[in-house]
Design goal:
- The complex is a heterodimer of chains A (286) and B (244).
- With 286 residues, chain A is mostly beta strands.
- Chain A folds into two domains: 2-168, no CATH class; 173-282, Cyclophilin, CATH 2.40.100.
- Helix content of chain A is 9%, strand content 33%.
- Chain A has three helices and 21 strands.
- In chain A, a hairpin with a 5-residue loop joins strand 17 (233-236) and strand 18 (242-245).
- Chain A is elongated and about 60 Å long.
- In chain B, a hairpin with a 4-residue loop joins strand 1 and strand 2.
- Chain B has two domains: 7-80, 2-Layer Sandwich (Gyrase A, domain 2), CATH 3.30.1360; 91-241, Beta Barrel (Cyclophilin), CATH 2.40.100.
- Chain B has a five-stranded mixed β-sheet. A four-stranded antiparallel β-sheet of chain B has the order 1-2-4-3, with helices on one face. Chain B has a three-stranded antiparallel β-sheet with strand order 10-9-12, with no helix packed on it.
- Chain B has helices at 26-42, 68-80, 107-114, 118-126, 220-231; strands spanning 7-10, 15-19, 48-52, 56-61, 91-98, 130-135, 142-145, 160-163, 167-171, 174-177, 182-184, 187-191, 212-218, 238-241.
- By secondary structure, chain B is of the alpha+beta class.
- Classes of the chains: A mainly beta (286), B alpha+beta (244).
- At the A-B interface, strand 16 and strand 20 of A face strand 2, strand 3 and strand 4 of B.
């Protein structure tokens, strides 16, 4: 079994897969990768199952020492990855040798990058998922000095043949695809106009549970009878703040749900950092 | 304009929301749970999870839904055929709560504000049969209906940073148990040694929507005794079939 030593954990790193399903009814959040597009791609490059656990890293990447040869791929945000002293690229198969150190530099674009490893990381599976979540799994975030395990790689992928077509334009995209939320109809036409025609910027309160937007929307709606919410639900608080719920969100909430992000919209906003501006745009339901 | 319920509409590209009359009532809950069961049986192939709240059902798909409007119309058809006159099976669970000073952090405050003796508060809290509407907020947190009006009290003006696992609280017209230690704004009146969420058990929660709950008062010695039994995994909540 391979081992990675965490020399530095980075800003916020955790193991995630495509989330925990069938336990919402017990109040267990879905969790899973914030940007499913990038995470699936990282696994695809390595011919892993798309649901294999990956390491999600945020803005400031970790420093990791590998103790057995393996291959990895990094997708999503470009955080200037380096193997030992050499700069490497995203969206490639990267070979790691015993003693190699993977580290990251200054963020170039995006917020979250995904490190996939051949065969997937080894971690405890709780309630059908590997995704780390406080109170469900033993680990919540990567800690300095801890170790992560991975399967010894029996197959070695041919590096030259395995480049994938990369569509990373979404990292520059500031339009977020949305559908009307259940309480959208309760908004006045003025509120609807402001919501769809002005840009909103990401506030400091932004994490795996929710992204709060800075600009307020004048609001006179009352709270609703507590109802179901999902990752991508945009809530409007009594003070007029918009909160975009993300993968670790609770299962129910009492604020009016004015918009619902598409899966694509969630992936796009997951790559934004504090201060970035976004614009909501309706898309047709197929 | 009078809206017709239930309303069925997509909520994004991975979920379908079904709203019933916006009210908190056992009648609506019963209707919801019957429809929920029908949908679960019908969509067993579809990899969906159906959750309920007070007056909504949400059908959550693992993948993006293809032909969502076809799904919506077949759900309409399915629901129109539902026999909502039938009864639902439910259990009543008896939950031990220690209301002693050590746990009942806000009993004194409620006593003053509501002009009730502490013994009266305990009596008012242990008398009703509460209805479990759904689980949300935290894993294993039950939304209970049926709190005596005399016990309704506003939440703390600033939430506690740490409310202990098992804490039994009151906030407005609701009462509930914190399944794990977490920040919280409810007035705390006691603590239950029972476990309400166990990730190593399947299902992780024993009590679910439609069940009933009744609290009974225990002293500190009994609390410790039950805690020991839980550690040795030979404690079970007393329960029986509920005939409403």
């Amino acid at each position: 079994m391979g081992k990675i030593e965490v020399i530095h954990p980075g800003l916020y790193s955790s193991l995630q897969d495509l989330g925990r399903h069938n336990f919402l009814k017990y109040g267990v959040p879905q969790s899973g990768v914030m940007d499913s597009f990038a995470a699936k791609k990282a696994n695809l490059i390595l011919s892993n199952s798309e649901a294999a656990p990956v390491l999600e890293i945020t803005q400031l990447g970790p420093k990791l020492k590998f103790y057995e040869p393996t291959q990895i791929a990094i997708c999503g945000a470009y955080l200037n990855p380096k193997i030992n002293e050499s700069v490497v690229l995203n969206n490639r198969i990267l070979s790691m040798e015993d003693g190699d150190v993977l580290s990251f530099g200054k963020r170039v674009i995006g917020c979250r990058a995904y490190i996939a490893i051949v065969g997937g990381f080894i971690s405890e599976k709780v309630l059908g998922s590997y995704s780390w979540y406080n109170g469900i799994t033993k680990s919540e975030i990567l800690k300095k000095g801890s170790t992560i395990e991975y399967s010894s790689s029996e197959r070695s992928l041919h590096i030259l043949n395995a480049s994938v077509k990369v569509k990373d334009e979404y990292l520059n995209e500031n339009v977020i695809q949305v559908y009307p939320g259940p309480e959208h109809e309760l908004l006045s036409s003025f509120q609807k106009k402001v919501l769809m025609e002005s840009s909103f910027s990401l506030d400091v309160n932004n994490n795996r549970m929710a992204i709060q937007l800075k600009e307020s929307l004048e609001n006179n709606l009352y709270s609703i009878i507590t109802g179901p919410v999902l990752p991508g639900t945009v809530q409007l608080t009594p003070s007029g703040k918009l909160i975009v719920l993300m993968r670790d969100c609770q299962t129910t909430g009492g604020y009016p749900r004015v918009l619902q992000l598409s899966e694509n919209g969630i992936n796009t906003i997951a790559q934004k950092v504090i201060g970035d501006k976004v614009l909501f745009e309706f898309i047709e339901i197929k | 304009m009078k809206q017709k319920y239930p309303q069925i509409k997509p909520m994004g590209d991975r979920a379908i929301l079904i709203d019933f009359e916006p009210e908190i009532s056992e009648k609506t809950l019963k209707k919801l749970l019957i429809v929920k069961e029908i949908i679960e049986n019908e969509l067993v192939e579809d990899k969906v999870e159906v959750i309920n709240t007070y007056h909504s059902l949400l059908i959550v798909y693992v993948f993006t839904i293809e032909n969502i409007y076809d799904k919506v119309s077949s759900l309409k058809e399915l629901i129109s055929r539902a026999n909502i006159g039938k009864n639902i099976n439910s259990q009543i669970y008896h939950i031990p709560v220690c209301y002693e000073e050590e746990f009942g952090l806000d009993l004194e405050l409620i006593s003053k504000e509501k002009n009730l003796k502490i013994s009266e508060i305990i009596h008012l809290h242990t008398t009703p049969i509460y209805t479990v509407y759904f689980t949300g907020f935290l894993p294993g947190f039950l939304y209970l209906g049926g709190l005596d009006e005399k016990l309704q009290i506003s939440r703390k003006s600033s939430p506690r940073m740490k409310v202990e696992k098992g804490a039994v609280g009151i906030g407005e017209n609701q009462t509930g148990i914190y399944p794990k230690t977490s920040p919280g704004g409810w007035q705390v009146i006691g603590n239950s040694p029972a476990t309400f969420f166990d990730k190593n058990r399947n299902p992780p929660c024993i009590i679910s929507a439609g069940d009933k709950v009744k609290f009974y008062s225990i002293n500190k010695a009994q609390y410790l005794q039950i805690s020991e039994e839980i550690k040795a995994t030979n404690f079970q909540l007393k329960s029986e079939k509920y005939h409403g």
